[in-house]
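Sample intake sheet
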Amino acid sequence: MNGKRTLSPRRPLWLAGALMLVLGSGGCGSTATTADLADGRKALQTALDAWKGGQTPDALAKSTPSIHVADGDWKSGLLLQSYKADDEGKLVGTDLNYAVVLELKNDKGKVTSKKAVYAVSTHPQLLVLRQDD
């Protein structure tokens, strides 16, 4: 041997793969906060009562505490006549899911019943998101 050391062509690929694995795993150790049952139920009820009372999602976002709501029927102008929500939310990941039966009235006065599912998050902010839109 002449004392020269050559690198195997595999070494740079192995090193690049290991580096990507280490850099790509940042944040894997963090844990999300599970939604609070009482706060989640209250946020859902507040949002649906606001819709029933003729308020807008924007008004809820500006209230204290702010609740951010996404619901296609509400946004499209349907009126909420009544609702019946499950008493207990089902924990799905870190959010609570609530099954709700909505009685909606269109601009022609026709009332229809619709089943909906809302995902509610309480951390880091209050979110009420319609899942079946």
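Comment: Residues 83 and 102 are 5 Å apart (CA to CA). The first helix runs from residue 10 to 24.
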